[in-house]
Amino acid sequence: xxxxxxxxxxxxxxxxxxxxxxxxxxxxxxxxxxxxxxxxxxxxxxxxxxxxxxxxxxxxxxxxxxxxxxxxxxxxxxxxxxxxxxxxxxxxxxxxxxxxxxxxxxxxxxxxxxxxxxxxxxxxxxxxxxxxxxxxxxxxxxxxxxxxxxxxxxxxxxxxxxxxxxxxxxxxxxxxxxxxxxxxxxxxxxxxxxxxxxxxxxxxxxxxxxxxxxxxxxxxxxxxxxxxxxxxxxxxxxxxxxxxxxxxxxxxxxxxxxxxxxxxxxxxxxxxxxxxxxxxxxxxxxxxxxxxxxxxxxxxxxxxxxxxxxxx
Length: 312
Ligand SMILES: NC(=O)C1=CN([C@@H]2O[C@H](COP(=O)(O)OP(=O)(O)OC[C@H]3O[C@@H](n4cnc5c(N)ncnc54)[C@H](OP(=O)(O)O)[C@@H]3O)[C@@H](O)[C@H]2O)C=CC1
Ligand SMILES: CC(=O)N[C@@H](CCC(=O)OP(=O)(O)O)C(=O)O
Prior knowledge:
Blueprint: E1 3-8, H1 13-22, E2 28-31, H2 41-50, E3 53-56, H3 60-69, E4 76-79, E5 91-92, H4 101-107, E6 110-112, H5 116-130, E7 141-147, H6 152-160, E8 168-170, H7 180-187, E9 194-200, E10 206-212, H8 223-233, E11 240-243, E12 263-269, E13 276-282, H9 286-300
Parallel strand pairs: 1-2, 1-3, 3-4, 4-6, 5-6, 7-9, 11-12
Antiparallel strand pairs: 7-10, 8-9, 10-13, 12-13
The structure holds NADPH dihydro-nicotinamide-adenine-dinucleotide phosphate and ligand 2.
Protein name: N-acetyl-gamma-glutamyl-phosphate reductase
GO cellular component, one term: cytoplasm
GO molecular function: N-acetyl-gamma-glutamyl-phosphate reductase activity; NAD binding
């Protein structure tokens, strides 16, 4: 039987990409509100409570309002915002990052879609901390660049009009980015990581890097041990690839990259074994948002988890 889906925020960057991934799928029927009604409270309330699945692609406050408006106990919700990512009543929608998470998502009514940067960070770090190969009490650093679609319609507009000369934009300079609690909580870290994000002149894509001075970290495994552990953790995953070849000479993010729902992980050790660079590459609108939402929807609906995803 087909399931009905209401994307609240369907006209936004994440919402449009979700609709794109659902197009042509017989398993789902979209409930759509026309432009004049998409922010109309009564129309939204009806759609939210009629749908089998709601996907919220809204700013945090609007997402909280939509959740409060959804009184039907049979409507299941996936929220793409930051509002519920560390709320214990919500299943964290990152199926691969720890054992049992896919099953939690499958049976949950409420699923929070991870942030794009935390997907890269947790994809690299969480399995290694859980395996005891790197310490939970190390003060980690995360250096990351994102395509400008990561900031939604407002940042796209800025990069494509008034800010058309911006090549690189460092931000989060107050060291209080909203993704830090999510990274700390789901990796089980003692200290908040230092997070240094930036935006570059590419529409989509991101590189999230965690440099580790292995020789200074008591009890840390070697680069090979870290890579092997990630390789074993993600074995058989159609979405996450741990690259095991020798260090590439460069990793490129293209200005006009095609959409992708993959997560690619690299463990690059120094010749003397004292240092390692853990690097995640993903599409902020793919595994970082819309691809992850569709993957979660598939899991919740009991379907092939990769249906509609772009994995080539
Ligand atoms: N872009 C990305 O890479 C990622 C985004 N996210 C998160 O996903 C959510 C959506 O982000 P994104 O798509 O980028 O943002 P956009 O700004 O591109 O889109 C948000 C959409 O929500 C609409 N909207 C705002 N308030 C309401 C409301 N009360 N009722 C109905 N619609 C409303 C906006 O309307 P209008 O068009 O009129 O402004 C807009 O179309 C955010 O929480 C974001 O943080 C998460 C991971 C990655
Ligand atoms: C480039 C850019 O601005 N990126 C966004 C994060 C995008 C994302 O992951 O969305 P959430 O806000 O839902 O976590 C930011 O740093 O706020």
